[in-house]
User: Which sequence fits this backbone?
């Protein structure tokens, strides 16, 4: 994986947005090296292109929303971004005819299936990655996150909810296509029944249902099919984190450890890392698998 990859062909899907409840059609297409992941709102005229980049993040409440200077936006990009990052897609154009990605089944598995069906194409452009050189930590209302130098890009999350069905869970994985598609992609988003009314009142989760989310109520899991993994909640938080980290615009070669992560924490962590120019550098993928000098020197 030392060269940039794009899709070998187009992939099409349709569905409703988790929060908007609006039906959208989405087409993933190959793109030239250096494009990154770029959304195109085909239902809007004028400047309808939005780069999936941390500088374009506008909202992090129960989902990550990106927008361009003209105000064209796409909400809830994290599961699609996670699928693209997890499978190593560096460049793609995502055409979408509405304001939010389709929720599909609440996980990244349907996107993985679509991408795998379209196939990947390696280009001749060398892949460059963000190598973490020293720890960068942030703290936000009792939640914490740290980027650490690491030979392999990895995500490590810990969650704790005062509900016996969730409780305390930790899930960590080294980012690879195989591990992502087998162990992470299928973990669904989740929510608590008691929060649904307040979310609806705020215009959120209008498209949410047992078809696209795990719902937890007083008696446990409301979904008749139950959980896909015993620790599905932590795996989904890891999936979300990968999608948010992908907004850095290049793979982050470091270990992201987060306690009680949400989109606000993930996005703030990427911003904190990017802001500290001494904490990372862009290197070619070929050079990324050796420890940074700063770490070797400190033993
Ligand atoms: Zn999610």
Assistant:
């Amino acid at each position: 994986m030392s060269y940039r990859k794009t899709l070998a062909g187009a992939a099409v899907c349709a569905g409703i947005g988790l929060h908007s409840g609006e039906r959208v059609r989405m087409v993933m297409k190959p793109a030239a090296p250096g494009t990154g992941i770029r959304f195109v709102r085909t239902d809007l005229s004028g400047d309808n292109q939005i780069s999936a980049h941390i500088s374009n993040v506008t909202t992090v409440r129960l989902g990550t929303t990106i927008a361009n200077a003209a105000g064209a936006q796409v909400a809830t990009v994290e599961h699609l971004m996670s699928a693209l990052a997890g499978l190593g897609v560096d460049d793609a154009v995502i055409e979408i005819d509405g304001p939010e990605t389709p929720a599909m089944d609440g996980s990244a598995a349907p996107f993985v299936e679509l991408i795998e069906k379209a196939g990947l194409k390696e280009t001749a452009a060398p892949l460059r990655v963000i190598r973490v050189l020293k720890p960068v930590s942030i703290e936000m209302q009792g939640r914490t996150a740290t980027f650490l130098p690491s030979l392999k890009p990895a995500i490590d999350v810990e969650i704790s909810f005062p509900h016996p069905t969730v409780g305390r869970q930790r899930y960590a994985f080294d980012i690879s296509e195989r591990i992502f598609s087998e162990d992470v992609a299928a973990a669904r988003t989740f929510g608590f029944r008691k929060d649904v009314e307040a979310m609806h009142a705020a215009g959120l989760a209008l498209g949410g249902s047992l078809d696209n989310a795990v719902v937890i109520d007083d008696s446990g899991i409301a979904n008749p099919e139950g959980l896909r993994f015993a620790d599905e909640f932590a795996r989904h938080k890891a999936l979300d984190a990968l999608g948010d980290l992908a907004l850095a615009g290049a793979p982050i070669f470091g270990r992201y450890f987060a306690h009680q992560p949400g989109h606000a924490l993930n996005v703030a962590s990427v911003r904190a890392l990017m802001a500290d120019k001494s904490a990372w550098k862009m290197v070619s993928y070929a050079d990324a698998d050796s420890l940074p000098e700063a770490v070797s020197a400190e033993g």
Summary: Residues 149 and 254 are 5 Å apart (CA to CA). Helices lie at 78-87, 109-118, 177-184, 193-201, 232-245, 263-275, 293-297.
